[in-house]
Design goal:
The complex is a heterodimer. Chain A is 8% helix and 30% strand. Chain A has two helices and ten strands, in the order αββαββββββββ. In chain A, a hairpin with a 6-residue loop joins β3 and β4. Chain B is 38% helix and 18% strand. In chain B, α1 packs across α3 and α4 (88-101) crosses α16 (360-376). The two termini of chain B are 20 Å apart. The chains are: A mainly beta, B alpha+beta.
Chain lengths: 169, 418
Amino acid sequence: MSAEQRTNPVGKVKLEEEEKGAVLYNVDPIIMKYHYEIDYMHSYAQDSPFFEGLSKGELWGSKCPVCGSTFATPRGHCMNCGAKTEWMKLPLEGKVHTYTTCYFGSQEFLAETPFTLILVEWPDVDTFFLSRLLGVAPNEVKIGMPVKAKFRRLSQFKPTDVYFVPSDI
Amino acid sequence: MRPVYMIAGGITKFAKASPRKDFRYMVKEAFDQAMADVPGLTLDLIDGSVASYFSDHFTRQLMAGIMVHDYLGLTPKPSKRIESGGATGGMCIQSAWEAVASGRMDVCAAFGFETMSHVNTWKGNEFIALASDTNFDYPVGGFYTGYYAMMVKRHMYEFGTTEEQLAAVSVKNHGNALHNPYAQFPAELTIEDVMKSEMIADPLKRLDICVMSDGAAAVILASEEMAHKLTDKPVRISGVGTGTDAMRMADRPSREVILLPHENAADYKDLKYPGVHSFRGGRTAAKEAYEMAGITNPLEEIDFVELHDAFTSSEIQTYEDLGLCKYGEGGKFVESGAASLGGKVPVNPSGGLLACGHPVGATGLMQGVFALWQLQGTIGQHFNGDDTLQIKNAKRGLIHSHAGTGTYITVSVMERGF
């Protein structure tokens, strides 16, 4: 649009046409496609050391210095007494507390199905850790099965940088 | 606190997609149905409203609550939006209850909706999974059916619950819905049908899981004076309770069972609680509501229950949280027929979420509407003359709304007030 057109409201004023058009599914009523996406600048904030740990092949939970509560999934403050927690290194071997194999999933993970989810438990830790279990057929997973952590070589800085496999493989 | 009554309710037929009516029009339809049941109630007598919808993602519209309040003709009166995941509808009713109980309002409208058809099912599952910790849970494979599958696996391990017992819930609820004209997915099923349906997340199969829906529902709450002025069939909300638990299922501790009056510690001496097999928030909500309503033995003192059966497994787990049976006995409870129509305490006579559908923000209000009609004895009148689902002489019912992996849970007790 020229400077003349912008400043002269009665001349050759014309809204530019869009080439893209609309994607219509129906006209009665009108149902059309609407696209929406966004990139976030997400901070892991106080949880950052956990993700840094994964990149070093370490698994970190939390321990409360006041009441002694222990958490397999880290949290900055204690859910039982409110005190600031300390970092606590977890053993790389634990046991399956519960499990499922997902044959469907959210859109983001559909391509990865079927995948097996587990909660990992450790004998001296009060809470669990959610992860994926690889290297075992769905019908062979058992509650109580010993599992060991493995780490991606190239970190994505996501909780899936760690995953578990049966201890005996 | 003042006594609070529910005086009217309305609901749209839940459907996979309702493209001809947007969320405002859907609520308007439910609201007008409620208003039609109390002809003396005019808009000027309504002091304000509470809006219930779960996800801004589904609506693609922020401040959708005020748009409904506006559409209903209630501006410039007070209104607010409540959001608490799957429990949003139950929480909305409790928020309206607070407005009336406190004396701030004499008449308060509570309405809810969800328009889940605007994205495909797997994108919808993604939106729902964003209601799990997005640092630690969602990226691992965020999928609510997966989370519930892990919880029921542990329930099966602790208590011996079977897949056939889960299937029995599906058969019961889909069957009840055959007589509910508002239900999205009525079906005559057998245990075998459910067992043979597609595996989604072991052990939960397609027919163990509710569907996504478009729909709306509304109820009107009033003070004692206004309730008796406006209807000869008021229903009192005699107890409200709310419980919570850690957002992350992995953070659930292992402690002792929170006991209801009719239970004792010896019943559970070796049980680690809640772990991931039970909902501590559900038990907490029930305990608070029972104390307010004066209930000491729920199985004997409640005539029916409408509870949040997004999964067959959560219905079984919730029998236990509500104290209808002991922890661990939920599977046997459904098998015994106690929860069936004509049983000791019919559970989800409407068909529940499994068969009615689960337009999240409307769901808790749907339970309120069906419970209201049960207690008024007007099921036949509202269900095109079919009163098969009417529980004879129902005097007291319970509604239960549930979010996350048991993260927010509400229990409200309703009783005949005439």
